[in-house]
Amino acid sequence: MKTDSVIKILFVENSVEDAEQIITLLRNAGTAVRPARATTLEQIHAALEELGPDLVLYNPSVSGLPLRSVAQQIEASSRDIALVACVPKVDEQSVADMFQEGVHGVGARSQPKQLITVIRREFDALNARRQVRRLEAALRESERRCDALLDSSNDPIAYVHEGMHVRANRSYLDTFGYTDYDDLLCLPVLDLIGPSDAEAFKNLLRALSKGEKVEHRLELHARRADSSTFPATAEFAHATFEGEPCLQIVFRRQQIDPFLVEQLQRDTVTGLFNRARTLECIDNAVAAASEGRKGQTLLLIEPDNWAPIVNNVGLGKADELLAAFAHRVNTQLGQEDIAGLLAEHTIGVILHTDTDDAIRAWIDGLHKAISSEIFDLGSQSITLTVSIGGSLLGEKNANTDMLLNQAGQALRSAQGQGGNRNELHDPAAREKADAERERNWLSLLRRALTQNEFMLYHQQSISLQDAEGDYSEILLRMNGPQGEVSPGFFMPIAEKHGLNAEIDRWVLSQAITALKARDRLGVPTTFFVKLTPDSMQQQANLLPWLDRTLKQASLKHGRLVLEMTESKVVTMLRPAQEFITGWKKLGGYFALEQFGSGLNSFQLLNHIHADYLKIDRSFMAELPQHPENQKKITEICQQAHEMKRLTIAEWVEDAASTSLLFACGVDFVQGNFLQEPQPLAVNG
C-alpha cells in the first residue's frame, strides 16, 4: 500500500478501549496510525482543524451524533476526508442507508481483516485522489510552460484538432511560408502535405484518432503556401489544447542518421540498450499494458556474488565478464524481447510471452545457459549463477515505478534466499509464492539459531542532559546467504512459528556477555534490548533464567533495559504487569517504545511502570516543519518528567531536529545522523 508515513484517523467512538483495539489491529498489520477521538460535533470540528485527519472512523452507536451530521461537518471542512462506518455487523439495508448518507466504506468490527481492508482501501483511494490533483496541477503548469516555450522553439510545431489547425508557432509559419497565424486558422493540415503522401497522412491521422497502435512518425513531402515542397519527417503526439484533445505535429526537415541514433542508445560495454533507452522501452510496455495488452513481463537479472567475483578477477576484467554475461542473456531473447542495462550489473528484460509456462521455461533456459557456461578471462576461467526477479505486467500495475519496485523486491527476495533462484511477482499466485518464501526463510532461521548466524549491532543514544555512561540500542541482524538481513524480513516468520522467545534469549545472552566485558574495561554501559510478546508470555521461564545469568555476570542494576512497543503492551496488559514487576525485582529497567502514538498513552503508565519513554518516531519526520509535533513532544516530556520518567527521541536525522528536541526537554536522542549502527563486540 502506497501511503504517506502515517495515517491520521479521527475516531468517532464512545469507548477509548474500542478505538485502541482498532489502532492495535492496524499497527500489527504494519500501518502507522496518528489517532484522535471525538464524541461531539464540537470535538469533531476541533479535531478536523488540529489533526487534519485522512480518515474518520464512525461508530453509529455514538449517541447524539447522527451520521448525516458527521458527514455534513466533514463536507463543511472543505477537506477530502474518507468517512468509514464501523458497525457490529453488516446487513444490506443498513449499508445501503449509510452509503446514502455519505460514507465511503463500511467495516465490520466483528471481522478485523475486513475492517482493516476497508480502511486501507479508502486510504489508498484518498491518496490516489490526492495524487490525481497533484498531477492535474502539474499538468496545467506544464501546459502553461510548454505554451510559453512553443514560440521560442526552432522546430515547426502545430496543434491539430479534427484535421484543422488550432495553434502553431512562428517557426511553423516561417517554414510553410505564412506571415500570420490567421492565415492558418481552421486550415486543414492536409493542405500542407504533398499529393503523393496525402493518403498515407490521412490514414495515419484516422488511426491515431481511433487509438490504434501505429508508428507515430511519417516521412513525407510537405507543401508550402507557394506550392513548393520539401522532404520532412512528421512526428505525432497526443496533446490537449484549451482542454480539448488534439494532436501535436512536429515537422523536421533534417533527419538524424538512424545508425547514429541506434549507437547512441546502446551501452558501450554490453551492446545492450543503455539505461535511458531501457526505461523508455519499459514506459512503452507500461503504456501498452494500460491499453489492455497482455503477455508482457519485466525481468531483472543479476549475477550472484558480483562484488567478490570482481575482486577475484580484477577490475580490469570486470567489463569483459559483464559483456560475456550480457551476450549470454542476449542469445536467449526472442524476436520481440528487449534487453538493456539498468544498473552497473543489472540487466532488464521485457519478455513477450503468452503463458506463465513460457515465462518459466525462458527463465529456466537462462539459468541453464549461464550456469553451464565457462567464462574465460585471460588466464582465468570462472562460472556464474544468476538471480532473477520479475513482475507480470497488466492493467493493475501499469505504472513504471510500481513495476520496477515489484521486480526489484522479487530480485532481492531471490538473492536473500541464497541466489541462483528466481521469483515472479504475480498477484494470482501470491499465496503459493508466500508459502514457498516462508519455508525458505524458516529454514534459514533455524540454521541461524543452530549455527550462530545472528549478529548484533548497537546504536548510541546521546544524552542531552549530561547523563553519565554509554547508552545504546541493541539491533538484531541475520547473516543470510547474500549478506545481512534486517529483522523486518525474518521476525514475522519467527513469530508465526514460535521462534521469537528463542531468538530473544540469544540476544539477551549476547548483550549480557558484552555488558560484562565492558564492565571489566571500566566502561559503564546501558543496553536497550527489544523483547517480543512471546517472551513475556513465557516469563515463568525467562525471569529465572535472567536472574541466574545476571548474577553470573555480576552486572549493576539498571544496565539492561528491556523494551516493548506501547501497542503490544496494551493488548497484553496483565502479562506485561506481571513480567515488569518481576523484572524490576531483579533490578531491571523497562522502556515503552512508540510512546505517544495511542489515544491515552499516559493512562497506560498507571498500570505499567516504565522507566524510559521512547517517543513515537512519527513525530520526528521533518520535525522543523511541523510545529504541532514539537508541541506534542514538549507535552510528553513535561508529563514524563513530572512522573520521574526519562524520554528518548529515536530516528533523529538532522541537527535542526536535535536542537528542537533539546528545547522540548528530551533526555536522549538517537538516529543515523548522530551515529550509524556499529557491530557489537561480544567477548566472553
TrEMBL record:
Keywords: Coiled coil. It comes from Dyella humi. This is EAL domain-containing protein. The keyword Coiled coil applies. Residues 294-427 form the GGDEF domain. InterPro entries: CheY-like_superfamily, Cyclic-di-GMP_PDE-like, EAL_dom, EAL_sf, GGDEF_dom, Nucleotide_cyclase, PAS, PAS-like_dom_sf. The keyword Coiled coil applies. Residues 422-434 have a biased composition (Basic and acidic residues). Residues 438-684 form the EAL domain. Residues 125-152 form a coiled coil. Residues 414-434 are annotated as: Disordered. It holds the Pfam family PAS_9.
